[in-house]
Structures are given as C-alpha cells and as structure tokens.
C-alpha cells in the first residue's frame, strides 16, 4: 500500500531567462514502513522534491502533477492551512547541517519540549509540563543520548554535528510521523557518526513502521536496509526499483555509470581511468531536450531527443529508449 | 561568562585610566596656569593657591601630580568652578541626574517606537507600508537634531502653544533639587501641588525627549526590520513551521529573541549618538543638564568644569557600552563562542 504517490510532478521556476523546469514529470511511490533512497547529483532537484512534498513552497514556483497524494489527501488541492496541519502531523524532515535547524538562542531542552504536540498531553499546566519533560527525556533515550540532562541544558552551538543531528531526529519523531525525509543527513560527518545515524534511522523505521525517504548523492551511501531506490538526473527520473535489482542488473545507462563509479575503488586497476560520463551537468537554463542525459550518454541515438516514457521490467522501471537489458518479459 | 566579564571589566578600567591620563594632560595644554585649570583656584587668591599647590603636589614632579590628581578624582574633589566658585562635583550631580533622565526616557521612547515599527515593516515587506516606514525613517535619520529641535519648537511651542519653549519645569512649583531627575524629584518632594507639577514637568519633557528619540528610533527601526527579515529566512524558523508550531509561538519564542540580538548589540552605539545629540538638545531647550553645562563652560573658559563634563560624558558612554556588551553576551550565549571560538 503506497502512502506517498507522486505521478508526473513538474516544478518550474520563474527566472530572468523564463520558466525553467527543474523537476520534469517525476514519479515516486513510497510504501508504508519502507526506506526509499533517492540518488541524484547536486542540482538534480532532489531537495526541491522534498520541499514540494512538505509544502515549503515559494510562490514563484509553478507546480503541476497528475497526482501528489499523501494517504487519502490530495496535497496539491488542499488549502495551505489544512496542508500544513497534515504535513506537520504526518511528516518530518532532517537536513544536512542540522545545527542550523536549531534556534541558536534557545536551549536544546526547550526546543525539544516544544516539539512535543500539545494534543498528546493532558491534565493541568504543571502536570503537562512534567509530562513534557519526561517525554523529552524519553525521546533523547530513543535516539541514543544518555546524558540527557547535560544535553538538554546545552545551547545548539555547544553540540557536535552528530549530536545535533540526533537532536533533530528526536524532534522529528516527537509526533510519530509516518514519513521522514532525510536530506543527506550525514554529509560532513565522520564515518562512525554516520553509521550511528543510519543505524538509528533504520531502527526507527522498523520499530514504528515509519517510511523514510533518504536523499543521497551517490550509490555508496545507499544502505542495505533501503529496499527501494530511485535515480534522478537533472530533474528527470532515470530508473527506479528494488535496490538489489538495480545494483545487479541496471537497465539505464545512468545507473550503470553511477555503479561503475561506486565500484571503482574496489575493482579497478591502479592508475586506471576514473569511469565518468563525458561532459558536465548542464546549467538550468540550458537543459537538453528529450532525455536530459542525452549529450553525455554513451548509448545515445537519434531517438533520445524525444523524452522516453517509463518502461517496466518486473518491478524495475526506467526511462530509456535503449536500455542495457532489454526485457524478455516486456509488458 | 566570568572570564568574559573580567575581560570587559579590564577593558573598562584600562580605557577609564587612559581617559584620566588624557584629562590630566589637558590641564597643561589649556592656556593659563595648570594648577588653576585643575583646581579652579586663581593665583590671585594667594592663600588658597598655596594650599592647592601643597594638596595637589604641584611642588613635586609630574608623576606625583598625576597620582594626586587621581586621588582627588576618586574622592570626588574635582576642584571648583572658575565662574561660580562652587565645587564642581557637587554641581555636577543634579545635572547628571537631569541628563540621565532625559536620555533614559529618549531611549525608552525610541525603543517603543522604533522596534515595533521595524517589526511591522518587516511583516509588510516590500509593501506600501514598509516603504512608507522605511522612507520616513531615512528622512528622519537625515535631519540634523538642532534643526529638528527648532522646527518642532516653532510648531508645537510657538505656533500651537501646546508646550513651553524651554526649561525643565515652571520655577513657581519650587521643587527642591535632589537627584536632578525632575520626575523623581517631584515624587520625593512634599509639595501640595505635586500632581500639577508633574503635569507641568511632562509638558516640558516630551518635546526634547521626542527630538532626542528620533535618531535612535530610526536606527532601531532599520536594524530591527533587516534583522527580522534575515531571521525569517533562517532554517530553524522554517523547520519550526514545518513541525507545526503556531505562528504566534514561532514569533515570540524564536523570531523575536533572534531578531533582538543584533538590535541589542546596536544599543551601545545608539547611546553614543544620543549623548552627542543631547548636548545640542539641552542647549536648545535650556535643560539644566550636563550638556548645557559643558557648552556653557566652554564659552566661559571654565576649565575645571570642562574637564568634569568631558570625563563624565566619556565615562558614561563607556560604562553603557560595556554594560550592553555584557548583557548581550549573557543573553545570547553563542556570542561568547564567537569571541573565543570555544566549543
């Protein structure tokens, strides 16, 4: 059962050079309790997608979609107030530089207590306050912080980035969200802390049936618990499907290129060439027509100036005219 | 915080010490006899002059003279005025009270007007009201205070007659001067006409307060507006909103404290500007404060008074700046981290 269903989501930005399509007919489905990894280079529109889901929308953006559904709600056609209530209740997000998402002039404990929803507390004022305190402590225990008193009495600038990320996870799970969007949550962290954060996230997902949309830069950061994966390039969906299947038998040239890249360290000869695609990511104003990978794709042919439709082999979907594995079982 | 406080205190002491050295050296740079400049005793008054020579160690070297000067300064024996023959320190105290009262009221009025208008302008960003408020604040900021004061006197005192032209209070009320701050003095006095005196004092007060408040208020307005606009774009505000906190809570709990942080930092600077404006304003409104006293002493070449006025103004500005910095560092802890790059 999909709780998040996105079909052909398009986001256009108004710039001086006219409308720029930063997300081009993007689709994504997310099931309950599933960890889905979205892989894309910087500027591919993955953070924008997260913002569109959460409703951090700039009035200058033009957003159209065939479907943008969260459970039974059609997010695009809800009024902003109702949408904010639903996303505030059901969704949460954690970010790359966690400490900038904490108020620098407020103690961590106060901010944590504040994020516990009022509706879940009862009794008179003093009892509510005590309840908030114990619940805040419990939240910190759940994210693996033991010296709760010390941490709650600290200001955000006194925390390490790893600790700040744990705090923001604690704040994010305070109202038991159904969906957590993690936007490159471990960039600029030490491998040790990184592993801790990932372990924490997978544990939370398993114990609470929380879906996680993990956004990362490259395939090396895809964790084994993430059963589904999507690749996005310049705002277009390249390929999506079960992680294992994509890793072993990629259909899209982009997936293959990313795979070669991430396997390079383990398999290549010393001093061999880095397996990269030729060229560079095009600027937003000069996107190629059709498949945006076209100019850089080693297998591109004439047909690639038309945008390919999504095709499906088993549960693997990809948008390519000349896939690497042509389906014996075409639909 | 203790370390920070100590450092600021050291800075305050060192600056004050340098100030005393400067003031001391002025006695030798002013025309005339250094001892007369310092003590206010003329050489023609032979007996007292000899006495002053002995007490101020003018028969010894310059270092002894300085240490004696420092001793006199700390004991509050600042010599006597050349024109009134009164002890300078005793003359100064009520004047200081009047000046502090005026500046405090002006600061309060500036904050009450400036900060909310700035917040309001930020809320209406790029709207007609924002432009109006910002345009008005820029033009008010550009008007020199002496001109503004005259214009307002012409309008409110001369043309409309709402307020007396100058002075602190109608002398008929015969309020005894103790602290110099007129509202406080009225409260302390046992005059049967206290409430009438109070109303009269207010009618004298509001115009100079308004004139003085104008410049800090416009500065506050701009600082507050820009600061709030910046805070509104911060990640923690957006994430607070995404977490579903109410607008009111976000405003009071997160936007306001962070907005006020740079504003508080500016208060010291604002006070310095206020102090230079207060000198002119007191002269225009004939306010019996430090500023008009200082200007009068300059006209009369009354060197002991000049020194005392300069020293008091400088010390006041220094003290307020250090206090503002201490409050800033105490209220906003990450400031201390920036200062030491501590973790």
From TrEMBL, chain A:
Query: In which broad location class does this protein mainly occur, judging by the first location in its UniProt entry?
Result: membrane
Is the keyword Protein transport assigned to this protein? no
Record's GO cellular component terms = plasma membrane
InterPro entries found in the cross-reference section: AAA+_ATPase (IPR003593), ABC_Ni/Peptide_Import (IPR050388), ABC_transporter-like_ATP-bd (IPR003439), Oligopep_ABC_C (IPR013563), P-loop_NTPase (IPR027417)
Keywords, sorted A to Z? ATP-binding, Cell inner membrane, Cell membrane, Membrane, Nucleotide-binding, Transport
Transmembrane as UniProt keyword: no
Where does the record say this protein resides? Cell inner membrane
A single Gene Ontology molecular function, please?
Answer: ATP binding
- Its membrane topology: Peripheral membrane protein
Name the Gene3D superfamilies for this protein.
P-loop containing nucleotide triphosphate hydrolases (3.40.50.300)
Q: Output the PROSITE patterns linked to this UniProt entry.
A: ABC_TRANSPORTER_2 (PS50893)
Tell me one GO biological process term.
peptide transport
- Domain called ABC transporter: residue spans: 4-259
Which PANTHER family does the annotation name? OLIGOPEPTIDE TRANSPORT ATP-BINDING PROTEIN APPD (PTHR43297), PUTRESCINE EXPORT SYSTEM ATP-BINDING PROTEIN SAPD (PTHR43297:SF4)
The record, for NCBIfam families, names: oligo_HPY
Query: According to its UniProt record, which protein family does this protein belong to?
Result: Belongs to the ABC transporter superfamily.
> How is this protein named in the record?
Peptide ABC transporter ATP-binding protein
Show the taxonomic lineage. Answer: Bacteria, Pseudomonadati, Pseudomonadota, Gammaproteobacteria, Alteromonadales
UniProtKB/TrEMBL annotation, chain B:
The answer, when asked if Lyase is one of the entry's keywords, is: no
Pfam families in the record, alphabetically? BPD_transp_1, BPD_transp_1_N
Which SUPFAM superfamilies does the record match to this protein? Answer: MetI-like
Localization, per the record, is: Cell inner membrane; Cell membrane
Q: How does it sit in the membrane?
A: Multi-pass membrane protein
| InterPro entries in alphabetical order | BPD_transp_1_N, MetI-like, MetI-like_sf
Keyword set for this entry? Cell inner membrane, Cell membrane, Membrane, Transmembrane, Transmembrane helix, Transport
- Top-level taxon: Bacteria
What Gene Ontology cellular component terms go with this record? plasma membrane
Q: Where are the transmembrane segments?
A: 12-30, 102-120, 132-158, 205-223, 263-285, 305-327
| Gene Ontology molecular function | dipeptide transmembrane transporter activity
| ABC transmembrane type-1 domain ranges (all copies) | 96-324
Q: Has the keyword NADP been applied to this entry? A: no
Task: Extract the Gene3D superfamilies matched here.
Answer: MetI-like
Task: Spell out the PANTHER family in the cross-references.
Answer: DIPEPTIDE TRANSPORT SYSTEM PERMEASE PROTEIN DPPB-RELATED, PUTRESCINE EXPORT SYSTEM PERMEASE PROTEIN SAPB
* Membership in a protein family: Belongs to the binding-protein-dependent transport system permease family. OppBC subfamily.
- The protein here is known as Peptide ABC transporter permease
Originating organism: Pseudidiomarina atlantica
